[in-house]
C-alpha cells in the first residue's frame, strides 16, 4: 500500500487536471540539491520496474537474428535483423522515426559495437542505446519487464522528470510507483532524501502538487 501523503497528492493532481481528448501521462518531477552533476559518477541512470506498470503501451524493438529473432517475433513490437541494420543506418529519417517511436531497444551482445557505430548518433542522444542480450536467449522476460519500466536519467541537470503512469490509473497505483522511484533515487544519493530539494506530481498538462 502506498504512503498516505503520496496518495493524497496524486489524487489532487488527478482531480485538478482538465479532461483531455487523449490519455495524459502522469509525471514525477524531482529537484536535487547539493549534488555536483557535472561529475558523471554523481549522475543517475537506472531502469526501474514499476510495480503497477506504466498504464500504457511501451514499445520494444529487438535487434538480432537467428534464434533470438524467432523468439522475439511474437513478443517484440519490431525485430531488426543484422542485414536490415545496415540499411537502416543509411536511412537516417527512418532510423530517427524508429528511435522516436521505440521506448527500449534490445540487441544481441555481439551486435552492440555495430549498433553503436551505425546508430549511435541517433540512439545515444535519446538515451536509447540497446540493452544487450546473449545470442539465442529467450527475450520474453526482458521485454515484459521493460514494458513496466521507466528510465531515471539525471544528465547534468538537478531537475528531472519521470513518467509514473496515466490518468486512467488509480491514485493508489500511481502513488505506489512514485514511492518505488523515490526510494531508488534516494539510494543513489550520498545523503539520501536530504539531497532532494522537492518533488512534484502532475499530469502532462495539468497543475502540479507538491510531494515533498
Tell me about this structure.
This protein is α/β, with parallel strands linked by helices and 212 residues long. It folds into two domains: 4-55 and 148-210, Ribulose 1,5 Bisphosphate Carboxylase/Oxygenase (2-Layer Sandwich); 60-146, Rossmann fold (3-Layer(aba) Sandwich), CATH 3.40.50. Helices cover 35% and strands 24% of the residues. The chain is built from seven helices and ten strands. It has a four-stranded antiparallel β-sheet. A four-stranded parallel β-sheet has the order 4-3-5-6. It has a two-stranded antiparallel ribbon with strand order 2-7. Helix 1 crosses helix 7 (171-188). The mean pLDDT is 94.
Furnish the topology, listing elements before pairings.
Elements: H1 4-16, E1 25-32, E2 45-49, E3 60-63, H2 66-72, E4 78-80, H3 82-89, H4 92-101, E5 104-108, H5 112-123, E6 131-133, H6 140-146, E7 149-153, E8 159-166, H7 171-188, E9 196-203, E10 209-210
Parallel strand pairs: 3-4, 3-5, 5-6
Antiparallel strand pairs: 1-8, 1-9, 2-7, 9-10
Amino acid at each position: 500500500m502506498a504512503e498516505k501523503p503520496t496518495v493524497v497528492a496524486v489524487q489532487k493532481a488527478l482531480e485538478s487536471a482538465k479532461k483531455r481528448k487523449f490519455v495524459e501521462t502522469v509525471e514525477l518531477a524531482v529537484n536535487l540539491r547539493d549534488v555536483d552533476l557535472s561529475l558523471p559518477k554523481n549522475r543517475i541512470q537506472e531502469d526501474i520496474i514499476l510495480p503497477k506498470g506504466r498504464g500504457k503501451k511501451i514499445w520494444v524493438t529487438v535487434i538480432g537474428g537467428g534464434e533470438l529473432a524467432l523468439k522475439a517475433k511474437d513478443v517484440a513490437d519490431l525485430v531488426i535483423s543484422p542485414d536490415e541494420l545496415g540499411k537502416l543506418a543509411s536511412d537516417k529519417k527512418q532510423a530517427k522515426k524508429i528511435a522516436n517511436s521505440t521506448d527500449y531497444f534490445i540487441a544481441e551482445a555481439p551486435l552492440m559495437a555495430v549498433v553503436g557505430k551505425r546508430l549511435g548518433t541517433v540512439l545515444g542522444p535519446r538515451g536509447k542505446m540497446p540493452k544487450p542480450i546473449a545470442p539465442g536467449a529467450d527475450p520474453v522476460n526482458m521485454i515484459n519487464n521493460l514494458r513496466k519500466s521507466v528510465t531515471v536519467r539525471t544528465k547534468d541537470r538537478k531537475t528531472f522528470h519521470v513518467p509514473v503512469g496515466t490518468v486512467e490509473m488509480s491514485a493508489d497505483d500511481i502513488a505506489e510507483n512514485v514511492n518505488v522511484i523515490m526510494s531508488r533515487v534516494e539510494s543513489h544519493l550520498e545523503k539520501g532524501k536530504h539531497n532532494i530539494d522537492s518533488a512534484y506530481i502532475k499530469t502532462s498538462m495539468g497543475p502540479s502538487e507538491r510531494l515533498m
